[in-house]
């Protein structure tokens, strides 16, 4: 009975809040819940999430929840067994479990455990023929989960140091082919998420060049000049990019549309600030940054 109550809590309370789009676009309900009725590992992933939210007041990940941990242990045990014989079906089950655990830990503000699950998921993908392309092409579920993976990869703090797990060009290709299906966490943000990924890629490229700057002056000048040009081009792309409106045509009220467009504007301005701080190394007191902060504050209080 306890497990049933945790599962029901996940379905009725947690699941709807994982989607910023209308609920008919919430692919979590179309993938995770049906699979939970067939695969115990997926079921226990959702049960552990429901248990953790119900018993951990304020979504504090520092509060130990032994019961939820027992369910997670059941999940990880099944994942380990499946990893020994990674059929297509076992692969999708494991991937669903990993991404559910990633989402769960992030929702609690965890800064360590989610990354371990995410890295394990990446290592599992690399065991399959074609790596990321295998995930993208293996099923409808795999295609949608691949976009979810890309979203977390781009926004992960670890990507600022090491770059995204897969080239951002792979994610561009994935998003362009997923024109009629959307990650419910992104909504109309998809174009700006990809551009944030481009900033991350440029940052890692620039950092690696700085580490080997024992170059002749003429070569160093060319490297820096090229980096500034790429940064300026990327800034223009961010400034003129438009929200993905295909997922917004089914919104019921003008206020819902306004909320989505405001969220897009917030991400757009934040990306411009991020680009200037990590690539151009501009301090916050520079008027250019202060103006962007002013626009950001105006957008958030509109």
The rounded Rg comes to: 21 Å
- Encode the helix/strand succession as letters: HHHHHHHHHHHHHH
Largest sheet: none
What fraction strand?
under 5%
Poorly predicted tracts of residues? none
Helix percent band? over 70%
**Distance between termini?**
46 Å
Mean pLDDT: 88
The count of helical stretches stands at 14
Number of DSSP-assigned strands: 0
- Global geometry: globular
Global structural class = mainly alpha
Question: Which secondary structure elements does this structure contain, and how are they paired or packed?
Answer:
Blueprint: H1 2-17, H2 27-36, H3 40-55, H4 66-83, H5 88-107, H6 113-125, H7 132-138, H8 140-155, H9 159-162, H10 168-177, H11 190-210, H12 217-240, H13 254-278, H14 287-300
Helix pairs in contact: 1-3, 2-3, 3-4, 3-5, 4-5, 5-6, 5-8, 7-8, 10-11, 11-12, 11-13, 12-13, 13-14
Task: Considering the chains and any ligands shown, give keywords for the structure.
302 residues; mainly alpha
What this model shows, in words?
With 302 residues, this protein is mainly alpha-helical. It contains 14 helices and no strands. The protein has helices at residues 2-17, 27-36, 40-55, 66-83, 88-107, 113-125, 132-138, 140-155, 159-162, 168-177, 190-210, 217-240, 254-278, 287-300. The longest helix is centred in the C-terminal third of the chain and has 25 residues, at 254-278. 34% of the residues are buried.
């Amino acid at each position: 009975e306890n497990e049933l109550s945790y599962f029901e809590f996940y379905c009725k309370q947690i699941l709807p809040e994982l989607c910023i789009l209308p609920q008919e676009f919430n692919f979590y309900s179309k993938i995770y819940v049906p699979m939970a009725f067939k695969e115990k590992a997926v079921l226990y992933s959702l049960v552990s999430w429901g248990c953790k939210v119900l018993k951990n007041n304020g979504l504090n990940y520092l509060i130990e929840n032994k019961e939820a941990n027992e369910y997670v242990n059941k999940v990880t045990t099944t994942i380990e067994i499946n990893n020994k014989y990674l059929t297509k079906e076992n692969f999708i089950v494991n991937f669903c479990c990993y991404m559910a655990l990633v989402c769960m830990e992030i929702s609690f503000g965890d800064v360590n455990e989610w990354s371990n699950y995410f890295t394990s998921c990446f290592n599992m993908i690399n065991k399959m023929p074609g790596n990321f392309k295998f995930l993208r092409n293996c099923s409808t579920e795999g295609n949608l989960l691949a976009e979810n993976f890309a979203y977390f990869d781009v926004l992960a703090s670890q990507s600022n140091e090491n770059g995204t797990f897969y080239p951002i060009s792979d994610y561009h290709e994935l998003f362009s082919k997923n024109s009629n299906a959307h990650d419910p966490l992104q909504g109309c943000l998809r174009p700006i998420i990809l551009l944030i990924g481009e900033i991350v890629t440029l940052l890692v490229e620039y950092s690696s060049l700085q580490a080997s700057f024992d170059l002749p002056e003429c070569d160093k000048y060319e490297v820096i000049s090229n980096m500034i040009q790429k940064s300026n081009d990327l800034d223009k792309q961010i400034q003129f990019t438009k929200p993905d409106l295909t997922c917004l045509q089914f919104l019921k009220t003008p206020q819902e549309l306004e909320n989505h467009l405001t969220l897009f504007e917030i991400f757009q301005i934040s990306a411009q600030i991020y680009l200037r701080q990590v690539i151009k190394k501009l301090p916050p007191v520079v008027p250019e940054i202060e103006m962007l902060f002013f626009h950001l504050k105006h957008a958030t209080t509109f």
